[in-house]
Write a structure and sequence with these properties.
heterodimer; A: about 375 residues; Cytochrome-c3 Hydrogenase, chain B; 4-stranded antiparallel sheet; 3-stranded antiparallel sheet; 15 helices; B: alpha/beta; Rossmann fold; 3-stranded parallel sheet; 5 strands; globular; binds iron/sulfur cluster
Chain lengths: ~375, ~210
């Protein structure tokens, strides 16, 4: 952080928040102009974690891009895998094995759960409740990571999806453990809600802070929980019906005013819906192969063409736009990261609020820098 | 040094004798305050290490400080890009001596999976001295704890006086490391030769 008297007016000061800041969720930087404590201007500075994902993917084979997708939004590797696999399957017209579709739904919803849980902990940390809430959140997250580890071999960098299916079948007993975890999860959410949602300080810090109208949210290109918190009924799981989401019953929670409190609560509600989807999926998962035997992985050469595959990631619309020229490498590999595009309205939301609210607003959007800067 | 028998004799009577160095090192190694500073994916594992299950507090290192002025240990958890590298060096300079660096993960050690990229620094040891390197992508929390224990062992053995004294006790050493600047194509300079002394590869050595 550095303080400078502003050039514009002797009344205001310029503050550079980040890139090393405990609440910027990584290496995000904001140049903020303050009049007293009120924000009059905010300019995000990107690129401190630009790791040239797209360029690297264009130089490697199609399959070799899969482990890199893990590292985009590093809190939710499995949904990233799915989005990329979906785009390639669309490009090459590959069918997905039936059992794999169920495994994908289960792992994606587990990913959503652990993302939203971690979000609750981080936002509380941004508000000053540093530590305690995060401990509860990470306790629960660890249980889900254990499931990921026994399934894929890695806690975070799973590299699990393949074109036309998944890399390996579920280990014995995995579904039972998952069922137990899923059954116990609402209890944790109840506990979290009992501790938090009625809390006076939390309400004062969140309610009415930075409201967003549905109109602005749509025009700003928002997606995911941020868009739905503004009252828009738009969930790609319902709109596109990708995978097998049309077979499950679930509701799409919506906010009313789109303030930080709505953005906070929508995650809790979504987690509850995910629990419902998980229960349904675990109950009816069929036996069978986990990958389409006709799909080629190594030496895969899709026909020339282009495709855009998108899913409802835990943070919003995650899309991959791929162009193939018939060779064994993508000609163009473009990522549409929800975190980056959800940041477009950041300045608008923050101007006029107090400096202490900026961190909460940023936290309520839920960004991950690996995805923002790519 | 004190005779071991005499020392245990004295201990039985409630008299503890230690050299100043031992006491000083014991105090420092048991309360390392890391800088709260995450760069990328590895930072999530660092948080997991500090959280309830792995509980870094057992090793006296749970007090994460957001300000470099209050920190003793910099855990470089994640990819250091060329845009970020000067800031990492500046943060390191702002930390008070004695200070230590753990390079956590393949990226911090060498650029890791992104080594071929145009914007990724191929190892932070080009600019600042690294005490412990933890391989992995990301290293498991247990690995970070192991790295921390390794660092504590290292601190235990550091001398304050004499010809082999530790870097921070050596007043001849430069206090600040030069911060690289953004050049036309790469960081200027691309490394600090005073710090970066890679071992020759086996082929070069032959
Ligand atoms: S070593 Fe792996 S997990 Fe760690 S920052 Fe680099 S890519 Fe991420």
């Amino acid at each position: 952080m550095s303080f400078l008297p502003s050039l514009e007016s002797p009344q205001t000061i310029d503050v550079s928040l980040g890139p090393q800041h405990p609440s910027t969720h990584g290496v995000f930087r904001m140049n903020v102009t303050l009049d007293g404590e009120t924000v009059t201007r905010l300019q995000p500075v990107f690129g401190y974690l630009h790791r040239n994902h797209e360029k690297i993917a264009e130089g490697n084979s199609w399959l070799a891009a899969m482990p890199y997708t893990d590292r985009l939004d590093y809190i939710c590797p499995l949904t990233n895998n799915w989005a990329y696999a979906l785009a390639v399957e669309k490009l090459a017209g590959i069918e997905v094995a039936e059992r794999a579709e169920f495994i994908r739904v289960i792992t994606a919803e587990l990913t959503r759960l652990q993302n939203h849980v971690a979000f609750l902990g981080f936002v509380l940390g941004d508000m000053g409740a540093w530590g305690t809430a995060l401990m509860y959140a990470f306790r629960e997250r660890e249980k889900i990571l254990d499931l990921f580890e026994s399934l894929t071999g890695a806690r975070m960098m799973c590299n699990y999806m393949r074109f036309g299916g998944c890399r390996c079948d579920l280990p014995p007993g995995w579904l039972d453990t998952t069922r137990k975890l899923v059954d116990g999860f609402p209890k944790f959410l109840d506990e979290m809600e009992a501790l938090l949602t009625g809390n006076e300080i939390l309400l004062a810090r969140l309610q009415g802070v930075a409201p967003m109208t549905a109109d602005r949210a749509i025009n700003g290109g928002m997606s995911g929980p941020v868009l739905r918190a503004a009252g828009v009924d738009y969930d790609i799981r319902k709109v596109d019906n990708y995978g097998i989401y049309n077979r499950f019953k679930f509701r799409v929670p919506r906010g009313t005013v789109g303030d930080c409190y709505d953005r906070f609560m929508i995650r809790v509600l979504e987690a509850r819906e995910s629990v419902g989807i998980l229960k349904q999926a675990i109950a009816v998962i069929p036996e069978g192969p986990v990958v389409n035997p006709k799909a080629k992985q190594r030496g895969f050469r899709p026909p020339a063409g282009e495709a855009y595959g998108r899913i409802e990631g835990p943070k919003g619309e995650l899309g991959f736009y791929l162009i193939a020229d018939g060779s064994d490498k993508p000609y163009r590999f473009r990522i549409r990261p929800p975190s980056l595009i959800n940041l477009t309205l950041l300045e608008e939301l923050c101007v006029g609020t107090k400096i202490a609210d900026v961190m909460v607003i940023l936290g309520s959007i839920d960004i991950v820098l690996g995805e923002v800067d790519r | 040094m004190l005779d071991e028998d005499l020392r245990s004799d004295l201990q039985k009577r409630g008299i503890f004798v230690a050299s100043f160095e031992d006491l000083y090192n014991w105090g420092r190694k048991s309360s390392l305050w890391p800088l709260q500073f995450g760069l990328a994916c590895c930072a999530i594992e660092m948080i997991a290490t500090a959280a309830a299950r792995f509980d870094m507090a057992r090793f006296g290192a749970e007090v994460f400080r957001p300000s470099p002025r209050q920190a003793d240990l910099m855990i470089i958890a994640g990819t250091v890009t060329k845009k970020m590298a000067p800031l990492v060096v500046r943060l390191y300079n702002q930390m008070a001596e004695p200070k230590y660096v753990i390079a956590m993960g393949a990226c911090a050690i060498s650029g890791g999976p992104f080594k071929e990229g145009y914007n990724v620094l191929k190892g932070i040891d080009r600019y600042i001295p690294v005490d412990v390197a933890i391989p992995g992508c990301p290293p498991r929390p247990e690995a970070l704890l192991e790295g921390l224990i390794k660092l504590q062992k290292k601190i235990e053995g550091q001398r304050l006086f004499g010809p082999n004294r530790a870097r921070h006790a050596d007043t001849r050493d430069a206090a600040d490391y030069p911060v690289p600047s953004y050049g036309a194509h790469d960081l200027e300079p691309p490394m600090n030769p005073a710090v970066f002394k890679p071992e020759p590869s086996r082929r070069e050595a032959e």
